[in-house]
Design goal:
The protein is an alpha+beta fold and 342 residues long. 29% of the residues lie in helices and 18% in strands. The protein has helices spanning 4-13, 52-55, 75-84, 135-144, 213-227, 239-258, 268-275, 279-289, 306-316; strands at residues 32-37, 40-43, 59-64, 71-72, 95-100, 103-109, 159-166, 181-189, 196-198, 200-203, 232-233, 292-294, 302-304.
Length: 342
């Protein structure tokens, strides 16, 4: 391992900013201006609920362990932690449920990684017997730096977390083996009375604009299918989230309609059931695609032509390949349904 001084100069001071998303206007003053995740520096977008006793009212750089998401505002404690953190030599927490190189999805139960006895003034970099203590809380705090309209609850026990893990560079540009790295996630309530299949979803900024959000969305709808519940993301969506979901819904609806063999027409309900999507989300996607026509004769009902869909896909340059492979889920994995007290 390099010396602390060389690490400080090569990994921090000469880092290239990885912020590739449009500049977003925060709704409140940011308490963290920049994040150092492992050896990557990028800007924070929004304030998070980090304890003022630990990070202060405003910190120029917050150093976050890329393996366990513990954090520090000081570089020397951070470097000492990274050197000792055993998480880097282990698989990510939780249960492997999906793997298709170079990515996998791990399911983490917030109940298993909740906060134990914890002092708000104690260092979050403490090495304890419980390696993953506070993992989901620290992950949520980190995610809030890039999510405007989501709240972080310190009781994470009512949520499951689905981690997007990268195992190697997609272009295989490096011959040396790389450790699995968490690059995004979505969370989901264990019991949602609105059948939400996503509470919050985020691909970390350095890995955005690579189509990885589609993997997380695809897994969330596969959750809905395996649970037998038509659902969708928690509303309202942020502007960025709405754009991402609209693109995903459009392709999902188009793929579903084109797959309907020997069927000249389909109702909105049939399309929604085929996609495991809410009817309102199907309607929103069809309106955005601008492919709905009105039958000229008869009841003047709305119709969608497969020819129009193919034209839309060609003009937009849409890749109709499903974002996930159902055969890559592990051991016929089925999500556990929470018990409901009568």
């Amino acid at each position: 391992m390099r010396s602390e001084s060389s690490l400080q100069s090569s990994r921090v001071n000469t880092m290239t900013s990885a912020l590739t998303t449009p500049v977003l206007k925060p709704t409140a003053v940011r308490n963290v201006l920049n994040v150092v995740l492992g050896d990557i520096l990028f800007k924070a977008w929004y304030p998070s609920f980090y304890s003022e006793e630990l990070v202060g009212r405003e910190v120029e750089r917050l150093f976050v362990c890329q393996w366990c998401f513990k954090y520090s505002k000081e570089i020397l404690p951070f470097l000492a932690h990274v050197k000792l953190c055993t998480a880097k030599d282990q698989e990510p927490p939780g249960r492997l449920i999906y793997r298709k190189e170079p990515y996998s999805i791990h399911e983490v139960d917030g109940e298993d990684y909740k906060a134990c006895s914890f002092s708000r003034s104690a260092s979050p970099l403490m090495v304890s017997d419980n390696l993953w203590q506070l993992f989901t809380q620290n992950l949520s705090l980190f995610a809030k730096l890039f999510l405007d309209n989501k709240s972080v609850f310190f009781d994470v026990t009512s949520f499951n977390y689905y981690l997007l893990v990268q195992h190697s560079s997609p272009d295989n540009s490096s011959s040396s083996p790389s450790r699995p790295r968490i690059i995004g996630f979505f969370s989901k309530e264990k019991m949602s009375w609105d059948n939400n299949n996503v509470a919050c979803i985020l691909v970390f900024p350095p890995w955005q604009r690579k189509g990885l959000g589609k993997i997380l969305m695809g897994v969330s709808y596969e959750l809905s299918r395996r649970e037998g519940r038509i659902g969708g993301p928690e509303k309202p969506l942020s502007d960025l989230g709405r754009k991402g979901y609209l693109r995903f819904w459009e392709v999902r609806v188009a793929r579903s309609i084109l797959s309907m063999k020997n069927k000249s027409n389909a109702t909105l309900g049939e399309i929604a059931e085929s996609c495991w999507m809410l009817i309102d989300d199907v309607i929103l996607a069809l309106k955005e695609m601008e492919i709905v026509a009105v039958r000229k004769k008869g009841d003047r009902s709305a119709v969608v032509s497969k020819v129009k869909i193919r034209e839309w896909a060609s003009v937009k340059g849409v890749d109709m390949t499903p974002p996930i492979d159902e055969d890559c889920f592990v051991d016929e994995w089925i999500p556990e349904m929470p018990d409901v007290e009568e």
